[in-house]
Structure formats: C-alpha cells, structure tokens
User: Which sequence fits this backbone?
C-alpha cells in the first residue's frame, strides 16, 4: 500500500472545506479539517500533516499567526504551507510569504491547479524527510532534527536560511545563480525579488560566522554563490 500524504485544511467556510476534502480525497490524499486557527495549530501538532492548506482569514487565530507559529515549532518548521487568500489581498499575500508560507493560491481557484501545487511542494519537501545528516568542513546539518552545528555549537537559522544551507551543502562547490536559489528554496510559483536572496545569504553568513571565521558561502562575481567545501 502506498503512503497517502495527510493534508491539514484550515478553512472556516464549511462548503469550501467540504469541497476541498472531496477533491483532495479523490486525488488520493488524506484530509483533516480545522475550522479556526486555534484548531489548526492543535491539529498540526497532533496529526503532523505533510502539508497545510491555510486560509488567510480564520477566526480566533488568523492564518498569518498560524503560519508564524507553525514555523516556530520544530515539528512543523519545514512543513509546506500553502496560503489561501481572497482576490485583492495582495499585501497580505506578500506578508504571508514573509512569514514563511511556501506558496499561495487566490480564491476562487480550480481544484486541479491546487492539487498540482500541492504535489509540487510535496515533491520538494520529501528529500529532507529521507536524508538524515550532512557534514562538510566544521558544519553538521541534522535534517531530521532540523539542527545545524558549527564547531560544536548550535547555529540558529530561520527556515529560509536552513533551506538555503541545505541546498548548498547538498551541492558543495556548485555555483548557483540567484534565480537557481529562488527556484530551489522558494519554489517555482513564488514571485520574490531577486535581491531577497542576498538578504537571506547575509543572514545565513552572519549566523554561521558566530562559531567560525572561515567564509563558507563564497560569492562568485556575476554568477552567484557556492559552498566552499575545501578550506582555502
Ligand atoms: Ca475564511
């Protein structure tokens, strides 16, 4: 029997929730529905879903706050989140992505489009579940425990910096253009400015520098960035 991924649907409008559940089950997913933000957080902790479909406008705890709290918990820090917004909530969409949502859909959306997005996100998030540890130089990444150790001390990284470092360490010495990094870390359907990459690289570098002076992320002029697998 193949594994059926569990989707947590946080949606307070019952007819939409019912329709989503029907369509997702037809596509071979299991579904649990939360009808407010508090319930969404509770179910996320209890059920450990493979992906969260999160309505922006939720009672009790808002979608954005749910997103923030999911990112702050070790167990859900890397769980893919798709934010659902109503048309015209452009500013919210951007804030949603800032908070750590991986993708967004705008209501009304077609079930086929949504399912395609879910499958794409799950494909991207799967390797991290199957790999355990990567060690390069004085850095050790524990992908299961979501921990980074440099020279014996734990480095605290945000979810984006963690994904960036993982991508670099899985491909040491490979030079990535900013566009490649956007695609690998933020995803195909995300529209973020190219300079956002530089912001997160800076954060990653400064976090790594706390416990070691060697520059691990190399800037390759007019090309992008690479992980220095060998000491200079
Ligand atoms: Ca709603």
Assistant:
């Amino acid at each position: 029997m193949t594994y059926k991924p569990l989707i947590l649907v946080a949606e307070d409008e019952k007819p939409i929730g019912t329709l989503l559940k029907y369509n997702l089950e037809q596509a071979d997913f299991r579904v649990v529905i939360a009808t407010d933000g508090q319930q969404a957080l509770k179910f996320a902790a209890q059920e450990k879903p493979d992906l969260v479909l999160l309505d922006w406008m939720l009672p009790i705890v808002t979608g954005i706050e749910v997103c923030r709290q999911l990112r702050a918990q070790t167990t859900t820090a890397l769980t893919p989140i798709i934010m659902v917004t109503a048309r015209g909530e452009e500013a919210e969409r951007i804030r949603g992505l800032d908070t750590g949502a991986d993708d967004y859909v705008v209501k009304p959306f077609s079930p086929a489009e949504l399912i395609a997005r879910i499958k794409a996100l799950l494909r991207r998030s799967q390797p991290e579940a199957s790999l355990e540890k990567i060690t390069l130089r004085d850095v050790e990444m524990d992908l299961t425990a979501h921990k980074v150790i440099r020279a014996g001390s734990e480095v605290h990284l945000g979810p984006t910096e963690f994904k960036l470092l993982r991508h670099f360490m899985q491909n040491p010495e490979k030079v990535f253009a900013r566009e490649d990094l956007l695609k690998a870390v933020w995803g195909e359907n995300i529209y973020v400015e190219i300079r956002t990459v530089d912001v997160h690289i800076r954060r990653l570098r400064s976090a790594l520098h706390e416990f070691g002076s060697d520059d691990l992320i190399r800037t390759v002029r007019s090309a992008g960035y690479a992980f220095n697998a060998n000491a200079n």
In short: Residues 122 and 224 are 27 Å apart (CA to CA).
